[in-house]
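ok so for the tutorial part 2 we go from a plain amino acid sequence to predicted structure tokens. step 1 is just haveing the sequence, like this:
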Amino acid sequence: MEPSTPPLPPEDSAAPAADITEFMEHRPRLFSLAYRMFGAASEAEDVVQEVYLRWALADRAEIANIEAWLTTVTVNLCRTQLVSARARRETYVGQWLPEPVPTGGGALGPLGTVEERESVSLAVLTAMERLSPIERAVFVLREAFGYSHAEIAEMLDLTVANTQQIFHRAGQRVRTGKQRFVVSAEHARTMIEKFLQAASTGDVDGLRELLADDVVSVADGGGRVVAAKIPVVGGDVVARYLSNLRRFLSPTSRFEFTEINGDVGLILIQDEIPAGVLVFDFDEAGSIAAVRTVVNPVKLGAVTM
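step 2 — the prediction. this is what the tokens look like for a chain of 305 residues:
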């Protein structure tokens, strides 16, 4: 997803062209930061637009370090808005999953290492919902962006000891649960192709062979599209559940492979419009350990063809 161009500031305080150019150099990193804070591309865009307006109105003479200033404004705006965002999610219909973002074009920054890919995976972003806004801020700044505890303490008005304690606690809460294993893109694609073949033909036995015994299927329809409101768990149950996917496909439906949040994923196209995204986790044996499906149309804005 290519971030949209930020709006111009008010006419009576228009930022010089050089300042706009300078901001745009930082914009992809700010979007990546805000997205990790929210797990929502739309909310991340709103925050980055607000950061731009504050940057346009700021007194440059008081900004000693541009990156630190922009990062601090972004993370603190996210912390404030996360309070209302979390309240909305408490009344969300069914299972909540992050908004999927195609990452093949670098929309969420460099993803060259296992750790970088892990930091934007739907699994980790979902687990981060367990964190308070301050825990999420410290975790993202340290884990995903590599800021020192001293830098984080200054940004968030904490002590270094506080940030260390918060980071340790956040890491424990995020990593509670089933461990994700990294498989090659080739293995993932082969397994997903077999999955598609079995699911589209209603082959329950074929699906079962691909799934781990403790596989979990989570679907996010947001009350707008039919989706299971609770996780479906267990190889036999999930195989039967997923074999019914074909009932929701039309003659014009097709699936396209793409990189979603650092993982090999699928985009469901209905009448040439993205109608859903599927992302898979794998276990140590290479079997499918989790299937995450986002079909809430509100969450598909970042999926571009």
